[in-house]
Amino acid sequence: MQTAVQESATYATRKTAAMAVNVESDSVALSMAKGYYFHHVSKYEVVKKYMKGSWIMTNFNGSSCTEDDILLKISYEIKMPIKFANIDSIRIFQTSHQRRWTGDNPRLERDDDVDYVYITETGYAYHRDINCSHIDLSIHSIDKKNINSARNQSGGKYYKCSHCVKNNQTQYYITDYGTNYHSDKNCSGLKRSIKRVKLSEAKGKSPCKSCGGNN
Questions:
Q1: Which residue of 22, 143, 144, 167 is most buried, as measured by CB atoms within 10 A?
Q2: How confident is the model over 71-86, as pLDDT tens digits?
Q3: pTM score above 0.90
């Protein structure tokens, strides 16, 4: 459950860091982050089942958004599986911090004389839309027993990552549009360092099938 909450908080701050570039109000940007968090965490049945009260009763006291940083401080109560004395729940505190996007504004019009695209360090394609699902990763954990039947959003099967997957592991990490499953959440195959470059600098990369053909 803590993993699900942390993944959702990380997704929310990262998404807001990029999307709030045109938002001048810090309170609006913070509301965006909360919205992204709720949207993401609602996918997890374990959160709905074991969070005391309701998963929408998450406390964000101490959270903030400035022109440089986005900070989500999340607290909630987990139901105890067995009541101990008068204690039937335990409060959990988690945080996620992200530097706010201060570089290029992706919503500004492109220079008419220069064609820009977005690339990643390990990707084989270039993207015209920074919000393309293939570079906007949502990392999920999955049990080993379910990995063979799992399918990504494109209907494809997940295959073992040759870099990080070892034997005798019970849990893996996958992404919505990825094709590999990973045992290390810090594996390079799960990282996306997005760069905005001139199309002429994306040599060797092919256009993304989802957004690369858009002009």
A1: 144
A2: 999 999 888 777 777 7
A3: no
